[in-house]
Amino acid sequence: MSGRLWHLGNVVVDLVLEIPALPERGGDVLATRTERTPGGGFNVMAAAARQGLPVTYAGAHGTGPFGDRARAALRAEGIDVLLAPRPAPDTGFVVCLVDTDGERTFVTSPGAEATLTPADLADLRPGAGDLAYLTGYGLLHDGNRAALLDLLARLDPGVTVVTDPGPLADEIPRDALESLLARSDWWSCNAREATLLTGVDDPAEAARALQSQLGRGSVLVRTGPDGCLLRQGERLVTVPGFAVDAVDLNGAGDAHTGVFMAALAQGLDPVAAARRANAGAALAVTAPGPATAPDAARLDAFLN
């Protein structure tokens, strides 16, 4: 496997609560299980690292119990950390509500990961053959957005840029969105996010609309258990998913993206990489928790 993944998103801590159903407004509900675990960008990095791809986290992280937990998890996965901890504040957290259908609902409280500056990344020079991963969450914070757009403008043309706009895709400032669209080699999102960005409900048509906005890249739209769609130029390919008994959908998209990037780095063609990513996401949802992507050996066994 060649290259390194430079992850420019945000690592947070997920406070996961499994509940029978979302409460009505002003109501309450008792959780049947709770968990505190690193999440956000960590899920993508763990998925890629478990496939054998070298990974560096280039985002900010804080001082406190959440920052300590995040760094310990990164070390356990063999993921390098570029920056020193911020003296304050602590790493942020996400309240994740998972209902009995496995669907998840989030509330995010930003922390140190939202304090990135251009100076933090001034000396970062990913090389040709590396991958750089950006997410829409980072572009919602003024400092992070300035740092990421500055880096984007000076990236080596041989760096593969993978962008996941995230659930708040429609809140990304338009100028930042256009810069990302111009430089991204892969625009990876789910069907809901594709609709937010295009106003088109049909995933295939939304993929076509996104493709028309990209300067050099291709589009991957995840369609849940059905798999995903690849749009490369005028070519649309449906890559089927895998039937499994889903326990927790939290982190499925992250697992998909991490496995997809590792497969690209391994030299697989995009369709084969997407099939592998579909399998990785399918395995991830069979266990509770956000960072449940399989390692390479388990994924190979599943595919074989």
The CATH level-2 architecture is identified as 3-Layer(aba) Sandwich
User: What can be said about the biggest beta sheet?
Assistant: 9 strands, mixed
The number of strands is 13
What is the percentage of strand-forming residues?
15-25%
Order of helices and strands: EEEHEHEEEEHEHEHHEEEHHH
- Classified in CATH, the superfamily is Ribokinase
Given the C-alpha coordinates, what overall shape results? globular
Give the strand order, joined by hyphens, for the main sheet: 5-4-1-8-9-10-11-12-13
Radius of gyration: 18 Å
Helix content: 25-40%
- Please tally the helical runs, counting DSSP H or I stretches of 4 or more residues: 9
Overall structural class, as computed from helix and strand content, comes to alpha/beta
> What is the CATH first-level class name?
Alpha Beta
CATH topology-level fold name: UDP-N-acetylmuramoyl-L-alanine:D-glutamate ligase
Distance between the termini: 20 Å
> Which stretches are poorly predicted, pLDDT < 50 over at least 5 residues?
none
What's the pLDDT, averaged over the residues? 95
Number of domains: 1
Concise overview:
This protein is α/β, with parallel strands linked by helices and 304 residues long.
Question: How are the elements arranged and paired?
Answer:
Elements: E1 5-7, E2 11-18, E3 33-40, H1 41-49, E4 55-57, H2 65-76, E5 80-81, E6 93-98, E7 104-109, E8 131-135, H3 142-153, E9 160-164, H4 174-183, E10 186-190, H5 191-198, H6 203-213, E11 218-222, E12 227-232, E13 235-240, H7 252-265, H8 270-284, H9 296-303
Helix pairs in contact: 1-7, 3-4, 5-6, 7-8
